[in-house]
UniProtKB/TrEMBL annotation:
Biased composition (Low complexity): 58-68
Gene Ontology cellular component terms for the protein in this record: nucleus
Record-given protein name: Transcription factor domain-containing protein
GO molecular function list: DNA-binding transcription factor activity; transcription cis-regulatory region binding
Signal peptide location: none
Keywords associated with the record: Nucleus
Positions of region (Disordered): 50-77
Places the protein is found: Nucleus
GO biological process: one example: positive regulation of transcription by RNA polymerase II
Organism (species): Claviceps africana
Length: 260
């Protein structure tokens, strides 16, 4: 099963060649907009306030008893329950032009193909089980998941003229600002997923620009590889991006966060 998933998932390294999407002016603008949103969100608050917010949101990220039951239903149904809840129970106002059935397919693809790649070293499968549950209450995260999955499907099918992922990526960024203003540490999940999307879509040589915003959030919320729960899983997903970047730079650049 793992081999099947890996053979169909296109990692940033395997898709490093430039395509029309990477050169799209709107995609380039949105990357800069995301950086600005993340840096502005951090600079508008002090670290003391962030610590209070982190304690408030972490239980949601680590699956409370009700979430555990939901996760089991999600696992047993092959993701069908999560797909329906993420689009219906989340009550997200769909302000995009993509048909709902396509959004359902993108969510299914996230659970079946995308999340297992991000959960490769996580036995608790936070991206596959807990992220869809969290996305029910977080529109920016829901759109980030949809954008990531849509982009993976576009690259897998070699679709040059499909911009669903760009539209979803834009919507996630638009909604991310208010979440940062609310000092919600789970915005780290959204930011990390969007960073992987950027690395999957653009030149890997610009890896630092894709992850600097994430690094700022990890430092601001004091999240480490030992924080526990979903935020810990997100940290190690981020750390893999840092490590890949350091390898690409052949030692010429240091990591953004001190990982050692």
């Amino acid at each position: 099963m793992a081999d099947h998933i890996e053979s169909h998932f296109l990692s940033p390294g395997s898709t490093s060649t430039a395509d029309e999407y990477a050169a799209n002016p709107r995609f380039i603008e949105l990357q800069e907009e995301l950086r600005c949103v993340l840096f502005a969100g951090v600079s508008s608050h002090d670290a003391g306030q962030a610590q209070v917010s982190k304690k408030t949101v972490t239980p949601m990220a680590t699956a409370a008893p009700d979430d555990g039951a939901a996760a089991r239903r999600n696992d047993e149904s092959g993701g069908t329950w999560s797909v329906k809840c993420s689009l219906d129970a989340a009550r997200v106002r769909i302000s995009i032009s993509i048909p709902k059935m396509k959004l359902v397919r993108y969510l299914q693809n996230w659970i079946v193909e995308c999340a297992p790649f991000l959960d490769k070293f996580d036995d608790d499968r936070h991206f596959g089980i807990h992220v869809p549950i969290l996305a029910e209450q977080s529109p920016p995260l829901l759109y980030a998941v949809l954008a990531f999955s849509a982009r993976q499907m576009e690259r897998k099918a070699l679709l040059d003229k499909c911009y669903d992922s760009l539209e979803l990526y834009q919507e996630s960024i638009r909604l991310l600002g208010p979440s940062l203003q609310a000092r919600d540490a789970n915005t780290l999940v959204t930011a990390c997923i969007l960073a992987v999307l950027e690395l999957m879509s653009g030149s890997s040589r610009n890896w630092r620009r894709h992850i600097e915003g994430c690094a700022t959030l990890f430092d601001f919320f004091a999240v480490t590889g030992f924080s526990g729960g979903l935020l810990q899983a997100v940290f190690w997903c981020y750390a893999r991006m840092e490590l890949c970047g350091a390898i690409i730079a052949a030692g010429a650049e240091s990591t953004v966060l001190p990982l050692a």
